[in-house]
Write a structure and sequence with these properties.
Shape: globular
Strand order of the largest sheet: 2-3-4-1-5-7-6
Number of strands: 7
Structural class: alpha/beta
Length: 562
């Protein structure tokens, strides 16, 4: 009987992994539509390394970080892409392949972690099922996101540590994998030490690990991470670019409140009430609390997620309900080590993201497997109270809700949210190649998405990395906050917004092409020489020839094109 149950468990786990893999790989190259600038950046750096042995900024095989857009991004994902490039074309499918593969394998790791933390077999299978069908992880695994890789290594490190059983080699490799998470994403600087500390304590208490093994493991961790901490700019630069303390809107409101207060009240009361500590402390607190809100996790999600998910919560409805129930039971049983472990992780996981915002789909992603484990902890208590029969409606509810999400993701999401994943830039890049020799200057505005259009151009056209590295025909600037903006490649100018042109009639000797969002052209009746649409049919880019613009001003163009 026991043998049969084991085989049934293996079959169920196999089916869960297969389903999880299918939803991560199916139409991987076309959903999400287009690729984000971060994906293009990682892909082009890998391509540049393959061709020249240097990244796009002429640095030979960066170890600790890639300069990127001046945000000093993790090297991990770029080096995962690099071995694939000699055997495949640089396209969205292969760009996303490492994330989808490691995301699928992580389903197995979550099951193993649940068993290692003494969850029942049924609970561990439900944890794997929730993780496999979680909208948040599915969306992230289908993009070239290093945070997905970081989560894989965190789970792998935790799994190896939980199953070390006094095997020193397991401990050493576990600590190496934990160290890799730090290289993958700055948020792991908070989460990984907590995971190491609690899991080590659990194992030491149960006599599954010795003091000598703990000392060796921690030494390995330190030697893995120290070079990153002392040699990388990524954490400090990135935090300096995106933290809440750079929010000028908060400072403006604070000064306004302080000035108003001082007109009617004593100065010390106003200063005590309205100061940087209270203003940013409240902002941090609001951001922190929102990480547990139903608005973020269940109903609407966050506006930053539209490149990976439609407007919806990051979790399934059933997942969120059992997550809240699980938190309740964790608090009741907080004196036990596993509940204390999960509670601590849930409490500290939002801290890095709260310093930058109120629930970013990427920065808060580190918490995901612990949300599933918390939900399953709640499910386990419900099963213990009501009996095993409740497993059937729970699993059925998860499967039905996941099916609805799957239909929305495969149909509505790529149609309605294509512009958020930078759809249209491949067509734009092809049009630039075709048109640049026909004009003296081509101006591409960043009004559609952002000011990093150059990366799509060099990615999709496979621009010669050596020419880019050497700065041939390249103009770029470094902004005060550290961001790098490429302004010009050849005669193609990448500008933040379309410039004000008082009278294009003054430009008599130049053929100029402007490409921008429709809203940036003050005269909507100017005929386009080319238009690029998103999947809804809305115009993303209009291309306006300056010659046609002049002609329209001379003959007074109308809507009928005369």
């Amino acid at each position: 009987m026991k043998h049969r149950l084991q085989w049934l468990t293996y079959i169920c786990l196999f089916l869960i992994v297969i389903v999880g893999g299918l939803v991560r790989f199916y139409q991987l190259g076309v959903i999400p539509s287009g690729i984000t600038d971060d994906e293009a950046n990682a892909g082009y750096d890998a391509y540049s390394l393959l061709k020249t042995g240097k990244d796009q900024w002429n640095t030979p095989y960066p170890i600790f970080s890639f300069k990127g857009f001046g945000d000093y991004r993790s090297p991990v994902y770029t080096y995962l892409i690099l071995p694939l490039l000699p055997f495949m074309d640089m396209n969205p499918f292969w760009l996303r392949f490492p994330a989808a593969l490691l995301g699928t394998i992580t389903i197995l790791l979550v099951y193993g972690i649940a068993k290692g933390l003494k969850f029942s077999t049924a609970s561990a299978l439900i944890a794997a099922l929730l993780f496999a069908l979680n909208p948040w992880h599915i969306g992230m695994s289908r993009t070239a996101m290093v945070i997905v890789v970081g989560l894989f290594f965190l789970c792998l490190g935790l799994l190896l540590l939980l199953y070390a059983r006094k095997r020193l080699l397991y401990v050493i490799f576990s600590c190496i994998f934990f160290g890799i998470t730090i290289y993958a994403y700055p948020a792991y600087l908070v989460i990984t030490p907590i995971v190491i500390g609690f899991s080590t304590f659990i194992l030491f208490k149960e006599k599954h690990i010795t003091k000598r093994q703990i000392f060796i493991g921690l030494t390995v961790c330190l030697f893995t991470v120290i070079p990153y901490i002392f040699s990388s700019n990524s954490t400090g630069v990135r935090m300096g670019q995106v933290n809440i303390f750079r929010d000028t809107g908060t400072m403006d409101l604070l000064n306004e409140k302080l000035g108003t207060c001082r007109r009617t009240s004593p100065k010390f009361i106003c200063t005590l009430t309205y100061n940087r500590f209270s203003a940013f402390g409240m902002k941090f607190a609001v951001n922190y609390v929102r990480h547990f809100s139903p608005d973020l996790l269940f109903s609407n999600g966050t506006a930053t997620q539209y490149s990976v998910l439609p407007e919806r919560g990051l979790l399934l409805f059933f997942e969120y309900i059992f997550f809240i129930i699980g938190i309740f039971y964790l608090i009741l049983n907080g004196k036990n080590i596993v509940p204390a472990f999960l509670l601590t992780l849930l409490l500290f996981a939002p801290v890095p993201d709260s310093l930058t915002g109120g629930g970013h789909y990427g920065r808060y992603f580190v918490v995901l497997p612990f949300i599933q484990l918390t939900a399953v902890y709640g499910i386990g208590k419900i099963i213990a109270s009501l009996g095993t029969w409740v497993v059937i409606p729970i699993v059925a509810g998860i499967l039905i809700e996941s099916a609805f999400f799957g239909v929305e993701y495969l149909t509505y999401f790529p149609y309605a949210f294509s512009r958020y994943s930078h759809f249209g830039y491949e067509e734009l890049s092809a049009y630039l190649v075709k048109s640049k020799d026909m004009y003296d200057d081509v101006y591409v505005s960043g009004g559609v998405n952002d000011a990093k259009q150059y990366i799509f151009y060099i990615f999709y056209t496979k621009y010669d990395p050596m020419l880019f590295q050497n700065g041939y025909g390249i103009e770029k600037i470094t902004e005060p906050n550290g961001w790098i903006r490429v302004q010009k490649i050849g005669n193609i100018h990448f500008i933040p917004r379309l410039p004000e042109i008082a009278s294009p009639l003054d430009e008599k000797d130049k053929r100029i092409l402007y490409i921008a969002a429709p809203s940036e052209f003050s005269n909507a009746h100017i005929p386009s020489v080319y238009e690029i649409h998103d999947k809804r049919g809305d115009v993303l880019f209009r291309a306006i020839s300056l010659y046609d613009w002049k002609r329209c001003l001379e003959i007074d163009c109308r809507e009928d094109g005369r």
